[in-house]
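Reminder: ligand-aware prediction takes two inputs, not one.
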Amino acid sequence: MNQVLPPGSTIGVLGGGQLGRMLAIAARQMGYRIHTLAPEDDTPAGQIADRAENAAYDDLDAIRAFAKRVDVITFEFENVSAEAATAAAEIVPVRPNGRSLHVAQHRLREKTFLADLGLPVAPFAAVDSLDDLTNTIRTVGHPAVLKTAAFGYDGKGQARIDREGDADAAWDAIGHQPAVLEAFVDLAGEISVIAARGLDGSFVHYGAIHNTHHRHILDISLAPAHVSHKIAAEAVDATRTILEALDYVGVMGVEFFVTRDGRLLVNEMAPRPHNSGHLTIDACRTSQFEQQVRAVCGLPLGSPEMLMPAAMANLLGDLWQGGDPDWAAACTFADVKLHLYGKAAARPGRKMGHLTVLARTLDEAAARVQQARGALTAARDA
Ligand code: AMP
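Here is what comes back for the chain with adenosine monophosphate:
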């Protein structure tokens, strides 16, 4: 179905988090209607939506009823079940397709898919039992990381293995679930590529973005990344290969490791807009969220051109632990853009918002965004 869904159509979003919120803001700006479905009340996306429904993602009757009220369905997080995507797809187009979701939500399927495409990944092996783990530590080697196959993100469900004797503790730590053992990579850095593929097969990308993490959670993103043209081009080529292999429609974020000896490895893919792409809202002609609206509605894709170097700093719930952050202090930096997601409970590690700064140089942008984030708590903690 190559039909354009014009403004005025209704986009259904499975999920209620910040990605859905920023998608909803972009969609509303373009005159689309938004319905969200999530198990929680008062969600970040639901606050912006025309209609926010409350149902579990495995409530297939609710998903079908939801699908009947919208013109297209997309999702904003990948732990929606493949059954839910299939049930919805019987009624309206689901973009990206259920296969992309199915591959991305399970590390073993994902790694196997990437390796079968001939893309470079860290050595890995499937682990279904403690015996398996003991054996695979011998083949994959150590140090290594044991990662649950399903429902892992931001370093959750991971245990590091430094020696064979760590197998028991690591198997306990991940709760005896099917897992993947992955060789530990000697990282020079991490980058991501945000890209979109349209209904007509067109492809656009935002180049390589450099990411640093804190306690396994994205902390700072800088674009364009300080990497060689060769590495950036390889990352974009790999991303394009993935999108084409999945006959993907929508925005995807692909995460990469850059090794100290200069190799690029694909880490994982997110079949949706990505945290490292939040800087595209302020820095690019077309944000990753507008791009997602265009792709899932069958419109031509917009220009991804980056207008200035940009830095983004995540605001985690930790910043609230000593009291409310000082928003006025961050806003005294007139060039800082504040984005908050409307979440009431600021738990440590929870993504509450982000700051973006554009500057003439990347170093300047990086320094300013850190300064502005520091200002949120400086007076309080002095
Ligand atoms: P993941 O949830 O797999 O993206 O892992 C979260 C973070 O843990 C990554 O962004 C890396 O910083 C780190 N990490 C994960 N796997 C490895 C690995 N095999 N080698 C080195 N660092 C890793």
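Residues 122, 145, 147, 152-153, 155, 182, 184-185, 187, 190, 213, 216, 255, 267-268 surround adenosine monophosphate (CB under 6 Å). The chain has three domains: 10-94, 123-183, 187-381. We will return to this case in the review session.
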